[in-house]
Amino acid sequence: MDKRHFDQLVKGVREMKRHMAGKSVRGARTIELPAPDVRTIREAAHISQSQFAKLIGVNLRTLQNWEQHRTQPTGPAKALLKIVASNPKAIEALHG
Asked: What are the two backbone dihedrals, phi and then psi, of residue 73, each rounded to the nearest 5 degrees?
C-alpha cells in the first residue's frame, strides 16, 4: 500500500470515529426515525403487557418504560415493533 492510500484509509477511520461520536462528517447523513408508540402497537395487537413483553423477548419493566416514554426501543426491538405496527396479526407468528 502506498502512502497516499494509507493516508486516505487513516482519514476514513478518523471520519468514522467522528461520525460514531455523533459529530458532523462531510457527506454523512443521519436519519432519526421517530420512536414507535409501543402502547398503541401493543393495544392494536390486543395483547397484555406481560404477554407482549414475553413474545418480543424483553423484560416487562422494559416494555413499561417504552410505553411511558422513559426509554425508547432500539435495534431489533424497534424493527420488530415496526413490523407489528404495520400488521398487528404478525404477533401471532411469535406464538411458536
From this structure: -65, 150
What's the residue count for the chain? 96
Q: What is the pLDDT of residue 89?
A: 86
**Cell numbers that stand for 26 in this block:** 462531510
Q: Is 96 exposed, middle or buried (0-12, 13-18, 19+ CB in 10 A)?
A: exposed
pTM over 0.70: no
Domain range annotation of the chain: 1-30, 38-95
Three-class secondary structure of residue 42 per DSSP: helix
Q: What CATH number does domain 38-95 carry, 3.40.50.360, 3.30.470.10, 1.10.260.40, 3.40.50.2300?
A: 1.10.260.40
